[in-house]
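User: I've been trying to design a sequence by hand for this structure and keep getting stuck. Would you show me what you'd pick, starting by listing the structure so we're on the same page?

Assistant: Good idea, let's start from the same input. This is the structure you sent:
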């Protein structure tokens, strides 16, 4: 059964692509009780112009938060800023969307350096790890406020959604590898899947749902022009899936249409 996404929602990596579209559709589709905290590295910079335009289109609905997922001090400052704004309300939904890919696709072994592996891992894995750890008290606060739901988990109660990818699947690697080798990105997202699984087990006691979603092959700067999916269709599907997630989906990797992807 689907539940309307509501409450306090935080999204990382929102200045472009999927993250920007998530903020746009969340602002459009959620009611007055919802508030979106849109995080990016430079909210006042030129790269966030479209994001600032959204805040003007939806006055009082979106708050921009400075957050660099590769910088622990920046994450800590963002937690403090959001905590002050939320107050006793807690955080209902945290979407870890921010990610990088280097070198450029198809990123074969010959072009991938140690620094590429380390930089991508820091942003795509360590960032979501620290964000989940440091925002946990706010997620717990929200879960506790919904005591009447018993042990029922959902994205409207308290949840972490990690944006992953089908190319993180070890089982599916033989069919996806020829399309894009992407050593650093693949391995970082496989690690993110394990992080998702660990957090799901750890946070069950708090009734916090943790799951990973593959957005599809999307036409973005990272996905490229030949990608079949628009950001609009991808996000529309993902939000529909998020609204239907429950206890049985905790710790799972699903796609934008709700299909389970094997590890």
């Amino acid at each position: 059964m689907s539940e309307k996404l509501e409450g306090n929602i935080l999204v990382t990596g929102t200045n472009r692509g999927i993250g920007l579209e998530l903020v746009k559709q969340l602002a459009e589709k959620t009611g007055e009780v919802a508030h979106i905290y849109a995080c990016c590295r430079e909210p006042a910079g030129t790269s966030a112009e479209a994001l600032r335009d959204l805040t003007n289109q939806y006055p009082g609905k979106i708050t921009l938060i400075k957050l660099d997922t590769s910088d622990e001090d920046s994450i800590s400052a963002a937690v403090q800023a959001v905590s002050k704004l939320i107050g006793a309300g807690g955080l209902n939904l945290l979407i870890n969307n921010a990610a990088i890919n280097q070198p450029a696709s198809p990123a074969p072994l010959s072009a991938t350096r140690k620094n590429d592996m380390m930089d991508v891992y820091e942003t795509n894995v360590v960032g979501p790890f620290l964000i989940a750890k440091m925002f946990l008290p706010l997620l717990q606060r929200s879960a506790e406020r919904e005591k009447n739901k018993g042990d029922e988990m959902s994205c409207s109660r308290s949840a972490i959604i990690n944006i992953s990818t089908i190319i993180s699947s070890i089982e599916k690697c033989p069919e996806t590898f020829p399309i894009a080798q992407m050593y650093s990105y693949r391995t970082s997202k496989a690690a993110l899947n394990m992080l998702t699984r660990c957090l799901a087990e750890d946070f069950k006691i708090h009734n916090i749902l943790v799951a990973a979603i593959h957005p599809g092959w999307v036409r973005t700067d990272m996905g490229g022009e030949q990608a079949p999916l628009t950001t609009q269709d991808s996000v529309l599907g993902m939000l529909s899936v998020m609204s239907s997630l429950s206890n049985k989906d905790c710790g799972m990797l699903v796609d934008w249409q709700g299909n389970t992807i094997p590890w």
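That's my pick for every position. To get oriented when you compare it with your attempt: The domain at 8-255 is CATH 3.40.50.720 (Rossmann fold). The CA atoms of residues 168 and 189 lie 5 Å apart.
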